[in-house]
Amino acid sequence: EPEVTQTPSHQVTQMGQEVILRCVPISNHLYFYWYRQILGQKVEFLVSFYNNEISEKSEIFDDQFSVERPDGSNFTLKIRSTKLEDSAMYFCASSELAGGSNEQFFGPGTRLTVL
Amino acid sequence: RKEVEQDPGPFNVPEGATVAFNCTYSNSASQSFFWYRQDCRKEPKLLMSVYSSGNEDGRFTAQLNRASQYISLLIRDSKLSDSATYLCAMSAQNYGQNFVFGPGTRLSVLP
Asked: Which of A1, B15, B50, B107 has its CA 20 to 30 A from that of A78?
């Protein structure tokens, strides 16, 4: 069964450093998403991406964040100048578009710890 | 009023019991509804979509009540492996829109 994959599973970084979280969405999916979940809190939407551009973003997704699809398979989230409050699980998800449902399938997540 | 609300639980039920959760939402433009389960420190896994006419998948039944703006999940003959947090999610458009998640309801099925 196709699945979303994410690397690394755990990233530890110092405050102020930049991190790049990587995702490989399901191959025939066209919509990609990043969500985050702070420990003990709900899953929160960050950004959606379609046709090589951002289609929607939340207020969390400020200038500190950026996304990119550098090639035909990877989808990345870059966090510049990380802050302590960026510590969270970051989930990538993907969904089909036309002809399918918008059921979103999640990757296993990257646990980001900012020290 | 919060956009999506769920009773956080925990619901502690014996094996074999039937248990039901509700999820209320405030955005009347919500169109697509889903139930996910999330195990501790894992990703949300899609359990089922929720259709207007209601739908069933084995021991799981999901229903939508648009008039009262809630969805429900019924689990029959609960198993130990059903222990997890159950998240409702919804989007305002049918395709490619972000999901708004509820905070989740924790279920513990006890032997």
From this structure: A1
Cβ within 8 Å, pair A109-B100: no
Q: Name B89's bridge partners.
A: B34, B101
Chain centre distance of CA B40: 16
Sequence-distant (≥ 6) Cβ neighbours of residue A9 within 8 angstroms: A108, A109, A110, A111
Residue of B nearest to A34 (CA): B98
CA distance B81 to chain A (A): 19
Give how far the C-alpha of residue A46 lies from the chain's centroid of Cα atoms, to the nearest Å. Answer: 8
Q: Are A87 and A17 in contact (CB under 8 A)?
A: no
First to last CA, chain B: 37
Nearest CA in chain A to B103: A42
pLDDT above 70: residue A18: yes
